[in-house]
Sequence to fold (109 residues):
Amino acid sequence: MLLTVVERKSTLLKMKKIGRKTKENVNAALEEKLKPIKKQVITMTFDNGGEFAGHVEIGKNLKAKTYFATPYHSWERGLNEHTNGLIRQYLPKKFDFKDVSGEKIQDRR
Fold:
């Protein structure tokens, strides 16, 4: 699975290959990717997946407010959804991430 985080104004993209969509994996990946830019992280908006159940802990560790998009309102996270669509052009839905190393997946701006 690929975790993506996109900053709305700068369009900074942070990506991390993670094994399974678990709260622990997602929390660790988010903290790893966002701690270096912690001062710039003010708010985060998640979709409603169970893997974001640790949002309180993430918000506390990054000193950011966390929000959830309204169910079935993907436009509330428009840039992230659009970015995921662009990524899918290169890594289709059935793509096996075992074939790609974590180093090949790089953050972009």
User: Anything to note?
Assistant: The first strand starts at residue 2 and ends at 6.
